[in-house]
Amino acid sequence: MATTPNSLATTCCIIGGGPAGIMLGFLLARAGVHVTVLEKHKDFFRDFRGDTIHPSTLDLLYELGLLEKFLTIPHSQVAALSAIIGGQRFPIADFSHVPTHCKFIALMPQWDFLNFLATEASHLPTFTLRMGWEATGLIQQNGITTGVRANSPEGPVEIPATLTVGCDGRHAISRDAGHLPLKDDGVPIDVLWLKIGRQSSDPENALGYINYGRLIILINRDDYFQIGYIIAKGDFPAIQQQGLPAFQQSLERIVPFLAGRTAEIDSWDKVKLLTIQVNRLLQWSSPGLLCIGDAAHAMSPVGGIGINIAIQDAVATANILTEALLSNTLSPHNLAQVQHYREDAVHNTQRVQVFAHRILNRVLHSNGPIRPPLLLRLLTSIPGFQHLPARFVGVGLQPQHIKNF
């Protein structure tokens, strides 16, 4: 039987079941707010997701009493990051001194992380997760968002809600339907995404290999590497025109221990283009609507910190809005508080990423073997230098803490 709109009414409807959406839904429901999370896919299994669970996020799980249980899920731990530049290894970040319970980044497929959070949230009586429900628009009256229109497995439905939160990523229907203004910083790079088998004897490196005008990121997923091959924006057609053998040779030239395995990439269908964006909403909210995470500010993959920022958004949003939602006193001022509190930390993080893009762009337009820059050699030789990037990557500019209501 088709569900009627009235039976779907909720206090908060969250569009998008990514890290921001599931974490926010969990925290609000934990405080007793009635929450419905809409996820357009039928499962969380997608390759194009971040795999890094940072020390600050692990701290949040500790505060929720879930850390020990979470760490039983298969994962690998990265206590330090280094880069291979021109064949030389440079230590970049050392997490041994970050002010958190866990002094490492946990590498875990994001679908495992989301399944874990969703399972924990499912035990809460006011939490509802609807998989395979795709938001198609907003319900609006006199400029106020009063809910969400969606396609469910049974057909079109309406979900009336006091608050709608867009956590639906960089192509968010929430911000488009809400007519929220967007500023795009422009990015000179894109990423080619592919898999190559991993062997137990392979060296560990979670940051990257830089040489011959290319940067390659390797993510350890136990029996294979998820590989991010950084290219200049718009270069993919030219790379394809050169042919797969040239692409395979390029991989082996930059990451020599992959020699003999790149033949696994025997079709361009196994190479996916990820278009990188860095942008931000000038206004995160309007009456009845709030956007957070990538919907409010798309992050670059530099540092792998997008998931960290999204989760910090979710925690801040729950901390700021829960009491107003419980007392039915939510106002546009409450929503604006989220942006006022978070936007400086987010924008400053994006500034660092944009600066890194400029450096990467120079790398991508260089020819021949790369000579490691003198400045890098000097910085990495300074005692304690590695603690600064570790703090930025692992904790961020504005770490959050769980507020109990």
Number of domains: 2
What is the multimeric organization of the chains shown? Answer: single chain
Structural class, from secondary structure content?
alpha+beta
CATH class type of the largest domain: Alpha Beta
Shape: globular
How widely separated are the two ends? 37 Å
Tell me the name of the CATH homologous superfamily of the largest domain: FAD/NAD(P)-binding domain
Overall pLDDT, averaged?
A: 90
Number of strands: 20
CATH architecture level-2 label of the largest domain: 3-Layer(bba) Sandwich
Question: Which stretches are poorly predicted, pLDDT < 50 over at least 5 residues?
Answer: 1-6
Helix content: 25-40%
Overview of the structural elements:
The protein has 405 residues and is an alpha+beta fold. The protein folds into two domains: 5-75 and 106-184 and 278-356, FAD/NAD(P)-binding domain (3-Layer(bba) Sandwich), CATH 3.50.50.60; 189-232 and 234-274. 32% of the residues lie in helices and 27% in strands. The chain has eleven helices and 20 strands. It has helices at 19-30, 55-63, 67-70, 110-122, 173-177, 236-242, 244-254, 306-326, 332-364, 374-380, 387-394, and strands at 10-15, 35-39, 52-53, 76-78, 80-85, 88-94, 105-107, 127-131, 134-141, 144-152, 155-166, 182-184, 189-197, 208-211, 214-220, 224-232, 272-274, 279-281, 285-286, 289-291. The strands form four sheets. Strands 1, 2, 8, 9, 10, 11, 19 and 20 form an eight-stranded mixed β-sheet that branches. A seven-stranded mixed β-sheet has the order 6-5-14-15-16-13-17, sandwiched between helices. Strand 14 and strand 15 form a beta hairpin. It is globular, with a radius of gyration of 22 Å. It starts with 9 loop residues before the first strand and ends in an 11-residue tail after the last helix. Mean pLDDT is 90; it is low at 1-6.
